[in-house]
Structure formats: structure tokens, C-alpha cells
Amino acid sequence: MQQPDTEQRLAARLAELRESRSWSLDELALATGISRASLSRIERGETSPTAALLNRLCVAYGLTMSRLLSEVEEEAALLLTPEQQPLWQDEESGFYRRSLSPPAQGFRSEMIEGQLRPGARINYDAPPVQGLEQHIWLLAGALEIGMEAQRWSLRAGDVLRFHLTGKSSFQTSDADGARYVLVVCRP
Predict the structure, then answer these.
(1) Which residues contact 19 (CB under 8 A, 6 or more apart)?
(2) How many CB atoms are located within 10 Å of the residue 33 CB?
(3) Can you give the pLDDT at residue 1?
(4) What are 131-183's pLDDT values in tens digits?
(5) Which H helix or E strand runs over 6?
(6) How far is CA 89 from CA 3, 26, 115, 135, 157, in A?
(7) DSSP per residue over 127-157, as a string?
(8) Distances (CA, A) of 43 to 8, 71, 147
(9) pLDDT-based confidence at 67, cuts 50/70/90?
(10) Could you tell me which of 36, 12, 4 has the C-alpha nearest to residue 23?
């Protein structure tokens, strides 16, 4: 479960990123398609962004979601116990994301555990970094992944690898959720 202080640090970091670029809320709203009012509430910590909205912000700032979330967590150690692995959740979409190995200086890849409840769907308008290498190992359930015109149906034990480009989506059936490990490799 997300910790309240993590949400507040995320809100502050998002405001800091916007201010460091000297962007107004209106300029960021135009760049992301997120309303000015929603951006303001997110930056004040009054609401937590959904996975899709957070992805739009990451695209605007040129950061992966993992990199952004790692910036608001404590300094990553080399060994992480389950209690130390940051968990972020988007209740609206049914997405739970645990950073198994948060990004760190000197490392190009990171591992994430993802869980989607039955009937969940997440749509991403664009990758945070074009051509980002991803490997997905489905541990349980069933998962439909789409990227532009390509579609893949994964079942437990399947592994999919690709370079992320364009719009993408993750969807589970109404009967099955999904639990997977995602490895992200920065170019």
C-alpha cells in the first residue's frame, strides 16, 4: 500500500519538475492533456494520479515511471527486503506496482512486479522513453498487451519482450487478473 508520505513526496516532486522547466500549469496541461485543475490537485497532494495520468506526466518530463517513483523513495540499497520494496497502486484501474529493484545510478535495468485485478485495463498514450526495452514474464493469470497494431495474449509462464513505441495497453479478462514481472532496460 502506498504510504501517505510517499504520495506527498510524489506531489512535491511533480511540482518541482514543472517549476524547474519554468512551465505554468496551463503549459503542462496543454502538453499532457490533463486539466489544469487536476494538475493543481495532484501537485498539492489532494489526489493521487492514475497510472495513465502519471504516464502522461512521465512522457512530458522524459522519465520512466520507475525513475520518477524512485526519486520520491528513500535511497535504494543493494539488497531490498519485501518491506523495503516500494509499492504504488492505482485503485481506479486496479493496478498494483512493486519496485523490486528501483532504478539507481550506474544501473540500466530495473525489475517491477505488476498486478492487475480482473477486468482491469490501462491505456498509455505514449512511452515515457521511445524504444524502451521491456521483458514481461507472466507469473499468474492472463494478460492482453497491445502496442499500436500489435496484440499479444499471455498465459502463465509466457515471456514477451519488445521495444516500447507508440500507444500501449494492458488488459485482463473479467474472470482473470494478472501477476507479472516486468524488466525495463533504459537505452
Answers:
(1) none
(2) 10
(3) 41
(4) 889 999 999 999 999 999 999 999 999 999 999 999 999 999 999 999 999 99
(5) helix 4-20
(6) 10, 27, 9, 21, 24
(7) -SSTTEEEEEEEEEEEEEEEETTEEEEEETT
(8) 9, 15, 30
(9) confident
(10) 36
Burial of 118 (0-12, 13-18, 19+ CB in 10 A): middle
Cβ-in-10-Å burial (0-12, 13-18, 19+) of 98 comes to middle
d(CA 97, CA 119): 17
Question: Would you give the end-to-end CA distance of the chain in angstroms?
Answer: 30
Q: Exposure of 175 by Cβ count < 10 A (0-12 exposed, 13-18 middle, 19+ buried)?
A: exposed
Q: Cα separations (Å) of 18 from 39, 122, 126?
A: 10, 25, 19
Q: Which amino acid belongs to residue 179? A: R
Among residues 140, 149, 129, the alpha carbon closest in space to that of 178 is found at 140
Cα distance between residue 68 and residue 51, in whole Å: 12
Amino acid at 39: L
Residue with cell 519485501: 82
Single pTM value for the model: 0.69
CB 134 within 8 A of CB 164: yes
Give the CA count within 13 Å in the CB-facing half-sphere of 95. 20
